[in-house]
Specification:
The protein has one domain. Helix content is 45%, strand content 16%. The chain has 2 helices and 2 strands, in the order βαβα. The protein has a two-stranded parallel ribbon with strand order 1-2. The longest helix is centred in the C-terminal third of the chain and has 20 residues. The chain is flat.
Length: 74
């Protein structure tokens, strides 16, 4: 499925989700045809409920969106 993606994509994993999820996230990001960024949120579980994890998730997502908009001149 990832090979069919032709838009910039941000793949985010939580560091405490386990090695299998980390491997899956990396493989998924590496198979996307468009520009892709892979990020791991440190000290976060899959649900991002730890102190500061959700904020970090929002921060990296907002940064990524702003970078894409600037790159495309929007």
């Amino acid at each position: 499925m990832a090979k069919n993606f032709n838009v910039d994509t941000l793949v985010i994993n939580a560091s405490n989700s386990g090695k299998a999820m980390e491997r899956f996230g990396k493989d998924y990001a590496n198979n996307i045809s468009a520009e892709t960024e892979y990020i791991v949120i440190p000290d976060a579980s899959h649900s991002f409920t730890e102190d500061g994890a959700m904020e970090r998730l929002y921060e990296v997502t907002a940064r990524w969106i702003k970078e894409r908009k600037a790159k495309k001149g929007n």
